[in-house]
Design a protein that fits this description.
This protein is mostly helical. It has one domain. The protein has helices at about 1-25, 30-90. The longest helix is centred in the middle third of the chain and has 65 residues, at about 30-90. The chain is rod-shaped, with a radius of gyration of 37 Å.
Length: about 90
């Protein structure tokens, strides 16, 4: 019989603690703290997104420059090949 009363007492104690905890979670001070925390998270998010945008723009610039370098190099290699084939044709005559 004692075991049943112990379980009932534990259940009732948990109910009281849970109800008190709920009151604390929805109190004005807690809501104010949640609001300030959310505002801080939004400010951090905005800062991070600005940094991400800057990194993305820089990466796009680097990619464009790299493509230009490769195109110029391909043109130079093509000119070298054409010059070599012209020299070979001149030597063959």
């Amino acid at each position: 019989m004692n075991i049943k009363w112990d379980k009932v007492a534990l259940f009732a104690g948990g109910l009281v603690v849970g109800t008190a905890g709920l009151k604390v979670l929805i109190s004005k001070e807690a809501v104010k703290a949640y609001t300030h925390t959310t505002a801080a998270v939004l400010r951090v998010r905005e800062c991070v997104m600005g940094t991400v945008s800057m990194v993305k723009e820089t990466a796009e610039d680097i990619l464009a420059d790299a493509k230009q370098i490769n195109e110029a190099r391909a043109v130079e290699e093509e000119e070298i090949i054409l010059d070599m084939s012209a020299e070979d044709a001149a030597e063959a005559e």
